Target: NADH:ubiquinone reductase (non-electrogenic)
Amino acid sequence: MVDLHDNNPPHQVVIIGGGFGGLYAAKALSKANVNVTLIDKRNFHLFQPLLYQVATGALSPADISSPLRSVLSKSKNTSVLLGEVNDIDPTAQKVMVGSEAVPYDTLIVATGAKHSYFGKDNWEEFAPGLKTVEDAIEMRRRIFMAFEAAEKETDPVKRQALLTFVIVGGGPTGVELAGAIAELATKTLKEDFRKIDTSETRVLLLEGLDRVLPPFAPELSQTAEASLKALGVDVQTKTLVTHIENDIVTIKQGDDVKEIAAKTVLWAAGVKASAMGKILTEKTGVESDRAGRVIVEPDLSIKGHPNIFVVGDLANFAHQNDKPLPGVAPVAMQEGEYVAKLIQKRLKGETLPQFKYVDRGSLAMIGQHAAVVDLGFIKLRGFFAWFFWLFIHIYFLIEFDNKLVVMIQWLWSYFTRNRGARLITGKEVVKPVPVESNEHYQPAKTRQPLNV
Amino acid sequence: MVDLHDNNPPHQVVIIGGGFGGLYAAKALSKANVNVTLIDKRNFHLFQPLLYQVATGALSPADISSPLRSVLSKSKNTSVLLGEVNDIDPTAQKVMVGSEAVPYDTLIVATGAKHSYFGKDNWEEFAPGLKTVEDAIEMRRRIFMAFEAAEKETDPVKRQALLTFVIVGGGPTGVELAGAIAELATKTLKEDFRKIDTSETRVLLLEGLDRVLPPFAPELSQTAEASLKALGVDVQTKTLVTHIENDIVTIKQGDDVKEIAAKTVLWAAGVKASAMGKILTEKTGVESDRAGRVIVEPDLSIKGHPNIFVVGDLANFAHQNDKPLPGVAPVAMQEGEYVAKLIQKRLKGETLPQFKYVDRGSLAMIGQHAAVVDLGFIKLRGFFAWFFWLFIHIYFLIEFDNKLVVMIQWLWSYFTRNRGARLITGKEVVKPVPVESNEHYQPAKTRQPLNV
Model:
């Protein structure tokens, strides 16, 4: 039993990662008699579920990000350290940030996941994924550059490839991306071009299983598919991607093999654990699963190291039913909060029952007007689902100024279908479009000389 | 005299550049019986006067940008072409975009200016300027990384250099940057760090002439200087920068030479004409001034080429008094609109009196609460000037959805002093900070082992 008088040197908690798991742990410890150091390689918390809105030009990165220091500025027991952890020493109880050693009494590892190409890492160049702000800006650049290039292209076959968007993976991110791109093409950009008809855009959503949104109830998958089709999305289930290279996606449906000519391919399929998983395995001997996720104990600690916890997408927690908990924000939040509570209990010499995830449901947005919500006891679709989706997402955006701005942006885009953030930025802004087949540029009508 | 019946092939106007000059020309031609092609290397119009708000984390790039296609979507006679013009052929009347030739009857060149280091181009690496969205994001990265590095630095001398910000140039951009950084340090970030006191930040504003805001009335320069000093900015006038290298700015004040140790140096001093100025000089024989600006005729055309116009920052128009018009947005807007009107008059066989700039005043913001406004007949300071500044800037933001969001962001930041967009993004996100002098990282208090 530890004496909790003020003159005691406080217990040191180190948290690696400022995503949902790490940040919710830190916030839940803000009034505890501990010192907290939160280490992240970025200076902001990112609301990842809305990244697809950045990728499709509806929101700006800052709208869905909150500076970690400002989220935690009132937690006076908490320091934020900007840096990347490259090693852990469980014996000396410290983590290494570059050449700096940061000592801990309790360690919470919450470094999440990155996208995985199932061993085909060369696909990344042709089919970028969506995990960081930079990913979203790159996706946004590709989407809007494709329309620009199509406007200049005179060869109808090449033009069709430029106006074909393939999204690999029919989970929430894939469904939301497909819906947003279809709306972009048929509504937002409709009046903007002079030579192409953007409503001829083809959006394909490829899913390996037999329905989109596999974690949802089957009837909601059907609703989602119907909503996507109403937006013009070509939904292909039971479809495997076997090859991706520049402009060509090869798919397999049963025994059929097909090639799709598409300039823009977006990856919303597999994820794998971040690099900290491997470090933990090497340094502590803990087991990990095929995706690199760390197998955790019922209290989210790792075997033989009761003062090291793993939460969020990096953890494989399979103590409720056989399947590990999914890599979604609510799981990470609840795990972070559980560990924070457990640390405080332990400091009093007490303990907690094992972690239990309370599933409050799943939800996904399809375009700007439809959504599906599966709360277990009730299933919502259409406008009410859309409104509920909006409410939940805004509610969980951490800082109020973001909430307000995002809400207004959404209400605005709901009524106008506008997407103001469709900036093409980045290193190669004007990537030269192949012009071999292009005639000299000809304005729509012939010219008339000016009398000066 | 030209016959204007509908079956006539329309007159082809090509505009290079979608800044204030080019965009206002295009908009003023939207109902005219001409075809317009607007060529820009970016797909958006940028509201440059607010770029400093992006650089200091108050606004996002998309808040001050409007997609050119959407601004011009209702101008059915106008096409937008994304690309960079690399040559002009005034004899064949065409411009080259890569290998594409775009023919014109009338050409409007509005490619603006970029920052100039007065021949010391190697300073750019140490003292970035502020002309593009990428510039602003790089400036934002440097500003916020400096605070992060200071938080980690244990050597007090190095820490002071990290907390020293030098802004070169006391024009509106320099004044606005200095005020914003001072407020950031003393207000926004005050509670965010645990080891540094951000209010010890030193912000220096260096100006070569004898007062800041030289184009304004002297009493407003005094007000601006007093407001800056109240915010803690160290204003140094009659100060020349003679050398910039990593961490050191060398200045000359009279005969005194001093060195300032500063990690972050921001350039808000000279500008020079964009590359199109040189192409025009070579291809048409038109004269240019020392800054590369093209000398224009009283009707903004260039000598010997009445169908080529230059407007905005690229033009040197000195027909009203001896001094050329300044490179500010109102000049560019009025020039663009004048040329649009002149083209329409010429098509009717008429003409216009020479261009005359109507100076409606100058304004600058100092921090979030003070501004100076010089309307000629009236001079405003303090809250009214701030409100007026806000109103004018919001009024001229091209698209309404941006206006609404920016207004709310501002009202919010006015009341909370928050700056939500302080993301550190870009290629080298976690630039390793030199740690030679650093001790091993030590949490604020000593540690207490956990009883598990």
The CA atoms of residues 37 and 79 of chain B lie 5 Å apart.
